[in-house]
Structure formats: C-alpha cells, structure tokens
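Lecture 7 notes: from sequence to structure.

We start with a single chain of 203 residues. Read the sequence below before looking at the structure.
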Amino acid sequence: MRTAAVGFRVHSGWTSLVVVALEKGKPIVLARQRPHLVQTFSYTFRQPYHTAEKMTLDEASAFLERQRAEARRLAVAALKAAETDIEQQGYKVTRAALLTASGRPLPELAKILTAHALIHTADGEFFREALLHSCERQKLTVSAIKERELMPAASSRLRRSSSVLTTCLTKLGKPFGAPWSQDEKFATLAAWLALSRDHRSLR
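Now the structure, written as tokens:
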C-alpha cells in the first residue's frame, strides 16, 4: 500500500486536515476535511482557557481536563475517519505534520490564567496537543514545523520558489472547491514537506 501524510493547521475548536501523497515526486491531495475538536461549537468550548479565566483554579483545572478528553476523542475519531477514507483509495497514512506557533513553553495553569497573552497561546496549544495525542494513538511519525518557517523550509527542500509553491497549492485545491483557503494550503504544504524530509520528531 502506498504511503501518505496528513497535515494540520489548527484553530480554536477545529482544524484543517489534509492528506497528501506523492506520485512520481509530485503531490496529490487525497482528502480534505475541517473536523471540529469540540462537541459544542461555541465560544465557551472553542476558547477553553478564556472560559477558564473566569473560574477558580480548581474549577478551571477540572473544566480543562474535561475539554481535553473531549478534544482528544474527537481528534482520534477525525484521524481514523481520514485514514479509512484514504485506505479505500489504496494509501496508508504513515506520517503527520503539525504546524506550530513560535511561542515559548507555557507555565503552570495559575500563571497562564493571569496573563491574557498566555491565555491566547494556551488555547492554540490546547488543540494542537489533542491532535498530537491522536497521531500518537495511531502510531504516526509526527513532524513539527513553525508556521513562519514553513514556506522558507519548503522552498529550500523542494527546490521551488515561494511563488511556484503558492501556485501549485492553489491548483491542488481546485478539484475540491471551497473551502480551500490558506488553512488547507498550509496543511497541504506541511504534509508534502513531511513526505520529503525529516523534521523534529514529536513522538
């Protein structure tokens, strides 16, 4: 069975998920999804640390643990569904690429909840962690790349200018129609890069 990689670009409560394979060195898109990572798609749950900010520390900790379990469950379900889809096309997902922010490691919860900038960062990392968990559950080799470094790294590794890559990514989405935004393009490029080189492993 031919191999493929899945790329993720995360938002609060959902992610862009794109599965990519290489045919004669050229990328093809096998699947495109936007799965939710919260059961109830409202501000309360899509912005868990913003919600927890208004709670006592114990309440916040319990709330975040419940939401973490839910996000992980939904992430695993979304990844399994994507894997099943592409297996029917004759491919197997073996790698994953997760776009990351450029922030530093987060401090303990009490400090996060007293700094609004950290709360924003924590909300993003919350859902990235759920996707990382799902990839580990499915025994994928996970690669991380900072989003700001994606295009320069891809241009260098794939030996294509950023303008050529942008044009290619736009064309890859035409068979799928909308939505094919920067989310899908970046997730595609991350997966393409994961198939072409080894990044820092997160497993």
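Residues 38 and 174 are 29 Å apart (CA to CA). Keep this in mind for problem set 3.
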